[in-house]
Amino acid sequence: MAVRWLMTGALVALWMASAAMTSAQQAPAPVMLTPSGEGLPDGPGKDVTVRSCGTCHEARRAASARLTRAGWAAVIDSMIGRGARIADGDVPVVLEYLSTHFLGEAAQPLNINTAPQIDIEAAVGLLRREAAAVVRYRERNGRFKTIDDLKKVPGIDFSKVERRRAFIVTL
Fold first, then answer.
1. Which residues does 65 contact at the CB level (< 8 Å), separation at least 6?
2. What is the pLDDT of residues 43-59, one digit of tens each?
3. pTM higher than 0.90 for the full model?
4. How far apart are CA 171 and CA 158, in angstroms?
5. Using an 8 Å Cβ cutoff, are 136 and 154 in contact?
6. CATH number of 110-169, picked from 3.30.160.140, 1.10.287.3510, 1.10.150.280, 3.90.1150.10
7. pLDDT, tens digit, for every residue of 68-93?
């Protein structure tokens, strides 16, 4: 009886390993969203914004953010740097739409010692994995004493930090 259970366990383990290998080999291609302007206010540039932003993420994601015009310009530059395809002539249209309908106050400095990962991504312009590395490093090694201490974090592009240095503090 024990041999039978052992054989059954071995077969189940073999089947699970085979299924895992098959699914890893057949990883689906990234899903591109169908642009939708649902939830966005009407106005000049809405269609261009939806078309430009809505294939990578829901365009209404902007509704949760309130940034200055300079902040929106930085977001657009960051998205283009990450592969967003926005025609040169559409950039000012998208910027005008976002800064008209989702205008916020000047950005407050980000305390890198207390900020959650999502805020580090947004304010510093880091990729999700880079922001996670900052949080992980901070949890293991303690507070950052200077902005230059971020150079010690493995796996981040410090040039991104350097560009946003004026918006980061270590309190």
1. 75, 102, 104, 122
2. 999 999 888 888 777 76
3. no
4. 19
5. no
6. 1.10.150.280
7. 888 888 889 888 988 888 999 999 99
